[in-house]
Amino acid sequence: MIRLEPSAADAGQRLDHFLHTQLPQYSRSRIQAWIDDGRVLINGAAAKRSYILKGSERIEVEPADLPPLHASPENLPLDILFEDADVIAVNKPAGMTVHAGAGRHSGTLVNALLHRFGSLSNAGDALRPGIVHRLDRLTSGVILVARTDAAHRHLAAQFSSRKIEKIYLALVHGRVKSDAGKITKPIARDPVHRTRMTAKLSTGRAALTEFKVLERFEKFTYLEVKIGTGRTHQIRVHLASIGHPVVGDKLYGAPSSTQSTALGRVFLHAHRITFTSPSSGEPIEITAPLAPELQRFLADL
């Protein structure tokens, strides 16, 4: 049993956020599962994830292991951009989920990697072997996967210290006036629509998105985007917050059109990633060519 007593300085925090900061050795998903299963008590009673702390509670946490990983090797196509003894770089197609979770245990990138490589790093969460960062299901492009625990820790440290450079390509609605720009609005979970994030609140996690215009069309603008942080839906939220949602991104207000509906995905592609090799210390740059359906969409414009 883990016992915690929040102070007045902790008042106003959500329960799940507080527990994640106090128990960093456990993943957010594991802590949320404990709350949902009634393994977290506040003053002797079960509470919800969204409980707002008053700063004088008595919290008791009864840890439990997550169910074992259900992902099994599946013979699925993979576009390998780079591999060595430490790292695999994959060009993930839009529509493929990165790892098991929320009832999905097959057809994921992890399933395909387990079939191709046999084993991955176990340094992270048991549900995400080898996964050190993620891409949204409808986002394509380069993603790094750790093969060993040492490589996983090395890459995670690079992400945490923001030493990894990530460049995306995005097509947005409207004509962006500035040739370049920076968005620094904090990002938080939308308090009403829980599947969304928002940049409209004064609170949230710090986020940095930089962009420059590559080409302007009559109704669209093609951007190169660089992110300094890795918040959930960051690029989509930030671009929508300045009035230019990503094409196809109905979750964040992209208008419907015959063109975007036919695309069947968001026009967001992880184009390039630069990191330091865990073994040699040398810089490695991996580029994923723009997905064919995105190339065709641009050509039609």
Descriptive account of the structure:
This protein is an alpha+beta fold. Among the domains are: 2-61, Roll (Structural Genomics Hypothetical 15.5 Kd Protein In mrcA-pckA Intergenic Region, Chain A), CATH 3.10.290; 167-268, Pseudouridine synthase (2-Layer Sandwich). Helix content is 20%, strand content 25%. The protein has 7 helices and 15 strands. Strand 2 (40-42) and strand 3 (45-46) form a beta hairpin. Helix 1 packs across helix 2. The longest helix is centred in the middle third of the chain and has 12 residues, at 149-160. The radius of gyration is 21 Å and the shape is globular.
Which structural category do the helix and sheet elements fall into? Answer: alpha+beta
Low-confidence stretches: none
Secondary-structure element order, as H and E? EHHEEEEEHEHEEEEEEHHEEH
CATH C-level class of the domain at 167-268 is Alpha Beta
**Mean pLDDT over all positions:** 91
Strand content: 15-25%
Total helical elements = 7
Q: Which shape, going by the Cα principal axes?
A: globular
Q: Over all CA atoms, what is the radius of gyration?
A: 21 Å
Question: Can you tell me the CATH architecture of the domain at 167-268?
Answer: 2-Layer Sandwich
CA distance, first residue to last residue: 60 Å
What's the layout of helices and strands?
Blueprint: E1 2-4, H1 15-22, H2 28-36, E2 40-42, E3 45-46, E4 59-61, E5 80-83, E6 87-92, H3 109-117, E7 140-146, H4 149-160, E8 165-173, E9 180-183, E10 188-189, E11 197-198, E12 209-216, E13 220-227, H5 234-241, H6 258-263, E14 268-276, E15 283-287, H7 292-300
Parallel strand pairs: 7-14
Antiparallel strand pairs: 1-4, 2-3, 2-4, 5-6, 6-7, 8-13, 8-14, 9-12, 10-11, 12-13, 14-15
Helix pairs in contact: 1-2
